[in-house]
């Protein structure tokens, strides 16, 4: 029983980190219809900048804030220079954002150096609690809490506020929203920057969790994020949360019980979902 609890906590923590990355991707695709394959690069920049700010200030809070600001700035640059010219063309979006993903990864090596950077858990969140044979690592519980808090905040914003109503209305009918005097391009810019900030937050939290950051991590986790978005349903925020938890738990249990399938389990999970529910778990058919 103790082993099951530990594996559940590990899987939930991993799932929440993936959710933070996939949540930004869900916002950008679900609300803007933009396929942003550079999203993983924003995640990696969040991880590196978080480690750098922490080493500079010795404050984990300031490191998180610095990483989020880095994501916002890069999100602004990406939307203005990369995404704006290819709105409405998915093929061009895929090609140009894949290229920009490579640029972001190489720029990490230029700015921070080609070697890996070590990341440590802040003292306040270091260590664990023991309840009999159950060992609960503090930092993993912290990640799980942040994931649910972010989900709750964005669900409230999208469903209960005027900003959320404007965004959803802009997705349904851009021309009508423009006719009401709302600059929908500016709204979409803010949505894109928010998605980039979520990716950077996920990267900053992932760094202490994994203990090391490297330039190629963006592409690796971006693949997981796209798997989550597909499983959950393109553009579904609750779907991304559920899918991220499923992916995290599947990876945790498979890595322990069937290590040979630990790398393939996510693809298998996506294949099963697509066979029986091609539109994803939370998206209506058609």
Architecture overview:
- It is a single chain.
- The protein has 286 residues and is mainly α.
- The protein has one domain.
- Helix content is 74%, strand content 4%.
- It contains 11 helices and 4 strands, in the order H-H-H-H-E-E-E-H-H-H-H-E-H-H-H.
- The strands form 2 sheets. The protein has a two-stranded antiparallel sheet with strand order 1-4. A two-stranded antiparallel sheet has the order 2-3.
- A hairpin with a 2-residue loop joins strand 2 and strand 3.
- Helix 1 runs antiparallel to helix 10.
- The chain is globular and about 65 Å long.
- The protein starts with a helix and ends in a 10-residue tail after the last helix.
- The relative contact order is 0.21.
- The mean pLDDT is 87.
List the helices and strands and how they pair.
Elements: H1 2-32, H2 39-57, H3 60-83, H4 90-112, E1 117-118, E2 128-131, E3 134-137, H5 138-160, H6 162-172, H7 174-179, H8 184-210, E4 212-213, H9 217-232, H10 237-257, H11 265-276
Antiparallel strand pairs: 1-4, 2-3
